[in-house]
Amino acid sequence: MKPLFRLLAGLPLGVLHALGAAVGWVAFGLSPTYRRRFMANLAQAGYRFSDARAAVSASGKLLGELPRLWFGEACPVEWEGDALIEAARARGRGIIFLTPHLGCFEVTAQGYAARFGRITVLYRPARKQWLRELVDTSRARPNLGAAPTTLSGVRQMLRALKAGEAVGLLPDQVPPQGLGVWAPFFGKPAYTMTLPARLAQQSGATVLLAWGERLSRGRGFRIHLRAIDEPIPQAADAAARFVNQQMEALVRECPSQYLWGYARYKQPREDRVA
Fold this sequence. Notes:
By secondary structure, this protein is of the alpha/beta class. It has helices at residues 2-8, 13-30, 32-44, 54-64, 66-71, 83-91, 105-115, 129-138, 151-162, 195-203, 236-253; strands spanning 77-80, 95-98, 119-123, 144-148, 166-169, 180-185, 188-193, 206-214, 221-227. It has a domain at 75-257. A hairpin with a 6-residue loop joins β8 and β9. α2 packs across α4. The longest helix is centred in the first third of the chain and has 18 residues, at 13-30.
């Protein structure tokens, strides 16, 4: 698989996005399960299919751009709201980036690492060995580290914050059993990680919202930054509800690039968390 990814990495980003868009529509047409989940999640958020039809191709573009992001030359990146990062770095207490499955979430961490310095991102190790090896080796970038969704990974992220570094995580990702609580997401209970609040409370780091907009015609990406106007509540249930509300607001900025096919409302699996 890695040789194929390296070969595809040499193609222009616009070509990869076009190929990915086709794959997105094929998957939507051939998988009834995926299609039903996509439509159900869309309706749960109050959208009609016509409101976010482009999200079908966007989900494929997400896959199509991976070879370039993992093995190719850096993609063009624009910034919107980067003064928030400068201000947070000046405080010297670390930054917690919260990013939903919106647009290109890979590029937000890569863009930060390339411009500002060290960042550690939370990830779930793949179950299959060949896929785990591909992901673990391909994401290696200067200033970009990874922490698994385990207690040791949590400690790794906390150490990074206490050193004044940045961390990134996807709060709309279903965490392993025991690392979250049930909280509304677009009005429906979803198992939600409590980690953002715990990291913020224990480190005093600045919390910023971020998402990577996929620009048209392969022009690259625009990273959007948003501040949170109030502290994350300390109680786990209230904190999860608050973070979900922040993620909903980001998704509503660009529903056509959200990963509506993600199984957001599934039961958490029992991972080893030691």
